[in-house]
Amino acid sequence: xxxxxxxxxxxxxxxxxxxxxxxxxxxxxxxxxxxxxxxxxxxxxxxxxxxxxxxxxxxxxxxxxxxxxxxxxxxxxxxxxxxxxxxxxxxxxxxxxxxxxxxxxxxxxxxxxxxxxxxxxxxxxxxxxxxxxxxxxxxxxxxxxxxxxxxxxxxxxxxxxxxxxxxxxxxxxxxxxxxxxxxxxxxxxxxxxxxxxxxxxxxxxxxxxxxxxxxx
Length: 216
Description:
With 216 residues, this protein is an alpha/beta fold. The protein has helices at 29-36, 52-60, 76-86, 102-110, and strands at 2-6, 22-26, 42-45, 64-67, 91-95, 121-126, 129-134, 140-143, 149-165, 174-176, 186-187, 192-196, 199-207. The protein folds into two domains: 1-126, Thiamin pyrophosphokinase, catalytic domain (Rossmann fold, 3-Layer(aba) Sandwich), CATH 3.40.50; 128-216, Jelly Rolls (Sandwich), CATH 2.60.120.320. Strands 1, 2, 3, 4, 5, 6, 7, 8, 9, 10, 11, 12 and 13 form a 13-stranded mixed sheet that branches. Mean pLDDT is 91; it is low at 211-216.
């Protein structure tokens, strides 16, 4: 099952929905759903970004509302991501999670690094850009067009045993060093490519030349 989570950040490009998608709004992300005429199955958070009229519209649309106290240990997006996993989602697209406050942006980008999400395909979408994390022995499939840019940035130290396919500058069981920019601005040669690694954690950023590919 695929889940699409609407966060409360800036939002430009609606995704192409598929039958069976689980739509989740993290608090104020429900405003994006309402603006698009979408009815999320679940709205979760402390609801400090939604007014009574919006909450009423969501209830009438059949959304399940799960409210948490304002003073909580987790962000609304982390709660939404956890619920998506618990409900069986194997692929999760997160929209409107970037921009605005850098502290929240960085925290959102690193959320998929938690151990409970290993094995899931989680990607943050921002316009024509998508961000994902690659864990050891996980194969990340990238779909786009020849000429799309792909950057691999090591997190948590040096990253070992990186192998790629379908990129202009291939890596074969190689190392990217923490703080180095060697992995930035690679290029897709084909409509698909993939990346694997043996040890470490990689941030993967794909910049598509065609905005219509986002969310597919």
